[in-house]
Structure prediction request, 138 residues.
Amino acid sequence: MSLPPELDFQRDRDASPARMNRAMEYIAAALRQALALKPDYEIALAELRDVGLARLVAALQPVVERANALAAELAEVHDRWVADNAITIMKAEILAAFDLQFDAISDDLDSRIDLVSTDLGKVRAQLDAQAVDRWFFA
Prediction:
């Protein structure tokens, strides 16, 4: 990428005050343009955060609901154990079943979080690339 004439000292080595003023004016104008884009960039980041949070809620809500249902079932089982005095007999079986269900929920949650993280990372990279392009190549 070649430099604009105002900044290309390879082509024009004049270091007069007028030339330096033109170079500084060019840099100041580019800086003003970049600063004018800052609110757009901040708005885009806020939108990205909101979309990310909405996706995270959508991905995690079924897992949380499932976990709450399992917790209610386990509370019922516990109450029956206490009432039947069967806690010591069935403890190992229930814990094994709970471990299997918990592992399944945990794996499901991990995969959903990985999916959301990947999507957010891609969107963030795209926004960063667009912001850099706007600031320096506009």
In short: The chain has a mean pLDDT of 83. The radius of gyration is 30 Å. The chain has one domain: 38-137.
